[in-house]
Amino acid sequence: APGSASLTCNPRKFSEKIALQIQRQAEDIAAFQEVMMDITSTRIQAQKVRQERNLASYYGGSLPNVSQISACPTGNQVT
């Protein structure tokens, strides 16, 4: 940038330089917080999935194999 040389050399511009640094820091902090919120929501979703899997195994595990059930005669059939 053409004004960057005068910005770094002129002591009167230090307040502007500090303001730019503060603005950049605020943008960096906002970006960091956004990433951390994404990570947190991903962890919460993963935890819910793990809990659902644990509950599924607690309440009976996987579903029965329907093809095996229909292949076996049961005696409850109406003739």
UniProtKB/TrEMBL annotation:
Q: Name one GO cellular component term.
A: nucleus
**Entry annotated with the keyword Signal:** no
Instruction: Tell me where on the tree of life, at the top rank, the source sits.
Output: Eukaryota
* Gene Ontology terms describing biological process: positive regulation of transcription by RNA polymerase II; protein homotetramerization
User: InterPro entries, per this entry?
Assistant: TORC (IPR024786), TORC_N (IPR024783)
Question: What would you give as a GO molecular function for this chain, any one?
Answer: cAMP response element binding protein binding
Location of the protein in the cell: Cytoplasm; Nucleus
Q: Which UniProt keywords apply?
A: Activator, Cytoplasm, Nucleus, Phosphoprotein, Transcription, Transcription regulation
What are the residue boundaries of the Transducer of regulated CREB activity N-terminal domain, all occurrences included? 10-64
Task: Cite the Pfam families for this sequence.
Answer: TORC_N (PF12884)
The reply on keyword Transcription regulation is yes
Could you say which protein family the record assigns here? Belongs to the TORC family.
What this protein is called in its record is: CREB-regulated transcription coactivator 2
Output the lineage of the source organism. Eukaryota, Metazoa, Chordata, Craniata, Vertebrata
